[in-house]
Amino acid sequence: MIKISFWTAIASILLFFWSLFILWLSIFIAPFENLEMLWIIVPVWLVWFFSEFFQEKRGTSFGNAISNGVVALWVGIDWIRYLIRLIGEGEIDYGMQTYSKFFLSFIVFVYGLIIIIYGIKTRSYIKYIGRIREITYVLLMLSPVVYGIVEMHWKTALAMILFFPLFYYVIEIIDTRTPNPKTYESDGPKERSFGESSNQNFRKF
After folding, report:
1. Which of 140, 117, 141 is nearest to 129 (CA)?
2. Residue 157 and residue 155: Cα distance in Å, rounded?
């Protein structure tokens, strides 16, 4: 009986994690259930692809981080615009669910604003929170929630947090195993590392 209970518990845990994984994957395909959301998601995917593989393979510069912050800020504004339009058209009412979506939109807006401000101030931690990979993940996960395709509850939040490392390191493996584009060779030594200040560059001249 003890062995049966033990293996039953293991199976239940594995099934639970599998259900979270399926839920996580469903968030990625959710935009295809609302074509209007594709207008914001497709640019996010495109910005991520070109920034990830053509700009940030060698690390995130302050300029990259600031540009990435603009993406998050703009998406936050667009979410707010979308929610206000739905309220004006009578498709949604004021309520806890709507307020929570406004809150998520505001958080993303502030997130982008912080990256822009502290990127301009050249704070070193911006290379972590301002990388296009992290910003893309946040926008991809929360957009279906704001658009009402995916319901935000504890399982959804848990799946988003739990499988973020999987998303991060799968992209990292692809990033490290793909050859550097010719743009890096053309830039050559002119490219500045993230931690090197602009003042140091000026002193070289």
Report:
1. 117
2. 5
Cα angle value 129/172/56 (rounded, 5°): 55
Would you mind telling me the total number of residues written for the chain in this entry?
205
Distance between CA 200 and CA 205 in Å, rounded?
A: 9
Cα 6 from Cα 10, distance rounded (Å): 6
Residue reference for tokens 């990292």: 172
Q: Which two tokens stand for residue 135?
A: 């910003």
4-57 confidence digits (pLDDT tens)? 687 787 888 899 999 999 999 999 999 888 888 888 899 999 999 988 888 887
pLDDT band at residue 187 using 50, 70 and 90 as cut-offs: low
Q: Which of 143, 172, 169 is nearest to 59 (CA)?
A: 172
Is the Cβ–Cβ distance between 59 and 194 less than 8 Å?
A: yes
Measured CA to CA, the distance from residue 110 to residue 129 in angstroms comes to: 13
With a cut of 50, say whether residue 120 has pLDDT above it: yes
